[in-house]
């Protein structure tokens, strides 16, 4: 059977598997297609996550520019991740009919344009509406990307490729935050958001021309809601998947809560850091870029569960270190949290991809639903802890969530849901 050329149309992702003497096992490491897929997936992760989290270092700026409180300013991020969470579930259904590549391309391109709209927003309410819509549109990226990886990459290289995608998200999250801080210091937050929107649109174009055509996916015409509901219900009955969904909720809750309010802590006495200095804290994401990639290699040799525990222990230790009043210690603690987050997230998402044998897009969408609900719900609720108990209360919340996650993993191993 002949495959479509890479430039035929957005719907090239609907091509059927090639039939030959041996079953097609997916794109293998070392091939040209793998190199192109790696670059395109990295660009996808970079653009989508820089757009989502670019406002995080700007929360103190929003309190001054729009006259809102710290917890209210966090809505610029929480609304995005909240709408993203539910949009992801819908995207997994629509991508079955529209194709993987086309949906990811359109979602990323429109989100980049909405970021430019945020840059010229004259009011706080319009800003929140634009951020909410941006989150909803970006729902077409994460779950579909994870599904594409699970479908098209050779299973032997799945953890490694997922780690590469997570590394792209780490780089995007880091550069979105650091770049915004630097540009805000010398220009303004509006100019910074506009420039980021342009850069991400360019990444979107590069992604489209590099991503290889799907060979293990066949589109299902029309939207069969009964089919999708049954697929989600089936996954929610799987104890292994549900355990990973809860872990996704916890790991994101810990991460976003700490990073949301460390900016407020460092912008006030006794530190009173500038926007540029605060943005440098987000360079700790570089540890996530390395750790998520290495975690994939380590998991192939040691297993995912021990590596996942290592991730949560790193987050727990990091949160405790930030209780120190010394700035250097706070930076070290934040780096530990960032490293642990990307390790645990890479392992949990890999577990989902390998556990779900059918309807992988639906399984990934449910994981990301829980994942982003953690960001939206606990990320905003953490503002209450900050306002009433200061930094020790925020750290206490993170420690409690880390302990709950470790207990959940221990329980999963004991009842043989997880293998050690």
How would you portray this structure in words?
With 420 residues, this protein is mostly helical. It has a single domain (23-213, 227-414), classed as MFS general substrate transporter like domains (Growth Hormone, Chain: A). The protein has helices at 32-53, 59-66, 70-73, 75-98, 100-119, 124-138, 142-152, 158-186, 189-210, 225-236, 239-267, 275-280, 285-302, 304-321, 327-355, 360-414. α5 (100-119) packs antiparallel against α7, α5 runs antiparallel to α9 and α8 runs antiparallel to α9. The model is unreliable at 1-21 (pLDDT under 50).
Quick take:
This protein has 420 residues and is mainly α.
Question: What attributes characterize this protein structure?
Answer:
mainly alpha, 0% strand, single chain
Q: Give average pLDDT, whole number.
A: 84
Secondary-structure element pattern, one letter each: HHHHHHHHHHHHHHHH
Structural class: mainly alpha
User: How many separate domains make up the residues?
Assistant: 1
**Residue fraction in strands:** under 5%
Rg (CA only): 21 Å
- Give the number of DSSP strands: 0
Task: Supply the CATH architecture.
Answer: Up-down Bundle
- Unreliable residue runs: 1-21
**The biggest beta sheet, please?**
none
Distance between the termini: 43 Å
Q: What is the fold-level CATH name, i.e. the topology?
A: Growth Hormone, Chain: A
Question: What is the general shape?
Answer: globular
Please give the share of residues in helix.
Answer: over 70%
CATH class identity: Mainly Alpha
In CATH, what is the homologous superfamily?
MFS general substrate transporter like domains
Helical stretch tally: 16
Domain Major facilitator superfamily (MFS) profile: 33-417
Transmembrane segments: 41-59, 65-90, 102-122, 128-150, 162-183, 189-211, 245-264, 276-298, 305-321, 327-348, 369-387, 393-413
Subcellular location: Cell membrane
Biased composition (Polar residues): 1-19
């Amino acid at each position: 059977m002949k495959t479509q050329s890479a430039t035929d149309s957005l719907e090239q992702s609907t091509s059927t598997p090639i039939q030959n003497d041996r079953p097609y096992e997916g794109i293998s490491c070392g091939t040209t297609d793998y190199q192109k897929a790696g670059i395109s997936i990295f660009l996808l992760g970079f653009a989508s996550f820089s757009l989502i989290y670019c406002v995080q270092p700007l929360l103190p700026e929003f309190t001054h520019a729009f006259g809102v409180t710290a917890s209210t300013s966090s809505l610029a991020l929480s609304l995005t991740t909240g709408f993203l969470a539910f949009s992801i579930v819908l995207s997994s259904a629509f991508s079955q009919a529209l194709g993987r590549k086309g949906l990811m391309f359109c979602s990323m391109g429109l989100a980049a344009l909405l970021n430019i709209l945020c840059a010229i927003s004259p009011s706080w309410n319009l800003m929140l509406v634009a951020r909410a819509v941006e989150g909803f549109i970006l729902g077409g990226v994460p779950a579909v990307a994870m599904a594409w990886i699970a479908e098209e990459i050779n299973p032997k290289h799945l953890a490694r490729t997922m780690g590469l995608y997570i590394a792209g998200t780490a780089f995007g999250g880091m550069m979105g935050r650091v770049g915004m801080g630097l540009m805000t210091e010398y220009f303004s937050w509006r100019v910074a958001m506009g420039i980021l929107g342009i850069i991400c649109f360019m990444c979107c174009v590069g992604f489209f021309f590099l991503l290889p055509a799907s060979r293990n996916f066949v589109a299902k015409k029309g939207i069969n809601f009964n089919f999708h509901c049954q697929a989600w219900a089936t996954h929610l009955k799987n104890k292994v998947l549900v355990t990973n969904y809860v872990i996704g909720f916890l790991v994101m809750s810990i991460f976003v809560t700490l990073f949301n309010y460390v900016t407020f802590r460092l912008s006030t006495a006794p530190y009173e850091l500038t926007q540029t200095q605060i943005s440098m804290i987000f360079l700790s994401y570089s540890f996530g870029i390395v750790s998520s990639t290495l975690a994939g290699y380590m998991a192939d040799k040691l297993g995912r569960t021990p590596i996942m525990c290592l991730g949560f222990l790193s987050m727990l230790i990091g949160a405790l270190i930030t209780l120190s009043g010394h700035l250097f210690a706070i930076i070290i603690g934040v780096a530990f949290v960032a490293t642990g987050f990307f390790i645990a997230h890479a392992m949990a998402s890999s577990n989902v991809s390998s556990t779900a044998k059918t309807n992988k897009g639906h399984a990934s969408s449910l994981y990301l639903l829980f994942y982003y609900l953690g960001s939206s719900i606990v990320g905003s609720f953490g503002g209450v802890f900050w306002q009433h108990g200061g930094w020790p209360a925020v750290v206490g919340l993170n420690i409690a969530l880390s302990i709950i996650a470790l207990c959940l993993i221990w329980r999963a191993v004991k009842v043989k849901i997880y293998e050690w």
